Amino acid sequence: MNIKNMKRSTRSNLITFGIVIAFYLIVQILSAAGLLTNSFKGQLVPICAYVILAISLNLTVGILGELSLGHAGFMSVGAFSGTLVWVTMSPTTPQPLALLLAFVVGGVVAGIFGFLVGVPVLRLSGDYLAIVTLAFGEIVKNVMNACYLGLDANGLHFSLKDAGSLGMEADGKVLINGAMGITGISKASNFTIGTVLVILTLLVILNLVHSRAGRAITSIRDNEIAARSVGIPITKYKLMAFVTSAVFAGIAGVLYSLNYSSLVAKKFDYNTSILILVFVVLGGIGNLRGSVIAAAVLTVLPEMLRSMNDYRMLIYAIVLIVVMIFNQSPQMIELRSKLTARWRKGGKDETKKKGVA
Description:
The chain is 72% helix and 4% strand.
């Protein structure tokens, strides 16, 4: 029985990786043929960033079973820390090394914040956890809006008042300029890097989900009291899932920010957290492959409907409602189960006929 389950999970994982690789190859072929619009090309890196965010949030919401609304906060922390590393190191350091360090620092800093937030917050659950994580995201946004950071020969200078209060020398450079954020970023993200990071995220999280730790996390989701009664360290595994989710949110933030010439905190507001949660819910809570597909489709859909400017958000809302009903309605779930069972039975019948023949 365990061998069958292992084969089934391996097959499912290979299909997920196959979808990502196939999408990459199709985009490269269409791009080489000149069939992609500039608008769609501009959406490729954000698609990868949102896919990473959806997968990582699904680890918290779907696998751990805790509702978090602060994912944009971790994305913001990672984006600003990673972008600062890129801006300061790229002029003097080989770009591949500077880019690698930017992603590592962005992920590590977001993971540290995930740990600091998770230790007190994960003692809560349900609506309380959602409210606290939402507050964290808003606090990060407001702090970054008021943050001024400069660099000169004497080192870093920090202020929450204005750029003039930094007290830098004449040759100093303002790195973070309050609500204007970080400007003059040399773009470094591309679709290939984004695809590699998506595959890396899937590798780590899928391996975690199917590991012993992943089974412990799932048992906490299903019945925390029972998990505690058999000696599973609840706090340890909750923190493991929460911090891992935060790390990849930070990496996604760096990928997203290095696709633009400027970075402002208002990009990572409450609406961004809700958007990521929408990807998770519509793709199926606990379904990582569904998160990949939902994030990609729903990122592109508003741009595809841009020609119908007066009705595009109406159509977008209708699509969300229809997909939600299709994924979550008990009647639709029962219908899909019947169709799947009939299809499998038909396949077995054909195999038996061929064997008889």
